[in-house]
Design goal:
Length: about 500
């Protein structure tokens, strides 16, 4: 039996669950469906990734319109981890609102349906071999996730939703132009018809593509998808959307939605790099956007007071770090892919803790939050640990992936790039650490009742943080091999 059958299942399963969510009999049933249904969808994605990784080439289906190779398999695994954690957290996060009646049955149904629809659209991005179908997936994520931002319907969340829709729609429109230009670059290359948008066909014919059209198309794609990925200076929508969305939604935004958009750029990069005499041209563009993102984020992190907005600007920084690593190439490719996992996990936990601390403290303003560990042992310690991980404190895995990117820059003789990168990291470290000290060690202004936390809450915080600590001191050989296989798709490994 052809194992490619699992790829349509990866798309169909969350779509069916989205339909089932619309007829959930109770609010509790809708939230339970989010938790258990997400786990089921994640299992299907992991199975698809495993089948692809155990094959020598790519796993394809539906006439090669769907395809999973090492790069998409790795992203599927990261997405499965983020959504599994976020789905379990969402059940507990909304449970009190559901039991008190603050969250109505239609709202619970709508949230669950939009949640699974976002999974389906992100899966479509990752398993598409057709660049046009990949664009459709990104456009679908924009439409679906916009309504997750304003699930509570507050004025500020509605404003954030419109800003997200307007900016990302413009970005996706630019990406559409880039996709058309990439297809047009196949003229005279022997790639014809519907095959002009198949990534595998474009890869095999890369040296015969029209260099001018392909390079212009790549610029459109970087700016277009870069807007959705939150790369500076196209990042303006991101702090508002991430800070106003419910914590589970913020977690999937920062934990994977940004990665899905950046993934589309990574898919096109090998085509540009294969052009005769143009090696390094596309990577230089990513280096520039990466450094700008790190520096812009550093400035805003220093001046930030809202903990969720701080995490949002941190996402701008870390997506910039990934772009920088990919732009450097070689070891930088491996380190950038490693950083994707590290940032996704740490940012998910960070938003879980920030959202729960915000509920307990009644605010996300760090100037009004004291001794988070006194408010809640699990969420307070988790917020402290996740912020330390996010700013690259040793021995968390983010320190290792950032160090490897810095090492790649120095190894290649890019000392100026390394200096700017190091300066940006230092600014972020000092700025965020100042906020962390303020909310962790400043004395309480009044006595509070300590939230003890459930077993599930402890697991959602300490299992991921422990994993980041372990990966910071020991990277298992099979995992490093997976990173190298994925990096080879981008055109390099070390």
């Amino acid at each position: 039996m052809n194992p490619g059958w699992i790829l349509p299942l990866v798309l169909l399963l969350p779509a069916l669950l989205a339909g089932a969510a619309l007829v959930a009999p109770t609010r509790r049933a809708a939230l339970r469906l989010v938790a258990w249904g997400t786990l089921l969808c994640a299992a299907a994605a992991v199975a698809a990734a495993s089948l692809a990784l155990h094959r020598s080439g790519e796993l394809t289906s539906l006439g090669a319109w769907l395809m999973v190779d090492a790069l998409s398999a790795y992203h599927l695994l990261v997405m499965a981890a983020v959504f599994t954690l976020s789905g379990a957290y969402a059940h507990g996060y909304f449970r009190e609102d559901a039991e008190s009646g603050e969250m109505s049955l239609p709202t619970a149904r709508r949230f669950a349906a939009l949640w699974f629809s976002s999974m389906a659209s992100m899966h479509l991005v990752l398993v598409s071999n057709n660049l046009g179908l990949m664009w459709v997936g990104i456009e679908a994520t924009t439409l679906v996730t916009a309504f997750l931002i304003c699930i509570h319907g507050t004025p500020t969340s509605l404003e954030a939703m419109w800003k997200y829709l307007l900016m990302c729609s413009v970005g996706v429109a630019l990406a559409f132009m880039g996709t058309l230009l990439v297809a047009a670059s196949t003229h005279g290359s022997g790639v014809e018809g519907a095959s002009a948008l198949l990534w595998t066909e474009l890869r095999d014919a890369a040296t015969r593509l029209d260099p001018k059209l392909l390079k212009i198309g790549f610029l459109f794609l970087v700016v277009g998808y870069g807007t959705k990925a939150g790369l500076a200076p196209m990042h303006n929508w991101l702090p508002d959307a991430h800070s106003q969305a419910p914590a589970p939604v913020s977690a999937i935004f920062s934990g994977f939605l940004l990665n899905a958009a950046l993934y589309c750029i990574l898919r096109t990069l090998p085509l540009v790099e294969a052009l005769p005499g143009n090696a390094g041209w596309g990577r230089e563009i990513l280096v520039a956007f990466g450094l700008i993102s790190v520096l812009v984020a550093a400035v805003f992190i220093i001046a930030q007071h809202d903990v969720k907005r701080l995490l949002a600007y941190s996402s701008v920084e870390h997506l910039g770090i990934v772009a920088l690593g990919v732009g450097l190439g070689g070891l930088g490719h491996v380190a950038a892919l490693f950083h994707i996992l590290n940032n996704s996990v740490s940012k998910s936990v960070g938003f879980f803790c920030a959202g729960s601390i915000g509920h307990l403290a009644g605010t996300h303003d760090m100037r009004r939050i004291n001794r988070v560990t006194a408010l809640s042992r699990v969420w307070g310690v988790g917020l402290t640990g996740s912020l330390l991980a996010i700013i690259g404190a040793a021995p968390f895995a983010l320190f290792l992936s950032e160090f490897l990117i810095l090492y790649a820059a120095i190894q290649q003789g890019h000392t100026f790039i390394a200096a700017i990168f190091l300066a940006g990291l230092a600014l972020v470290f000092v700025g965020a650490l100042r906020h962390l000290i303020s909310i962790t060690w400043e004395p309480l202004t009044e006595p509070v009742e300590t939230h003890r936390g459930t077993l599930l809450e402890h697991a959602l915080v300490f299992v991921p943080l422990t994993a980041l600590l372990v990966l910071g001191v020991w990277v298992p050989a099979p995992f490093w091999s997976l990173l190298e296989r994925a990096a080879r798709v981008l055109g390099g490994a070390s």
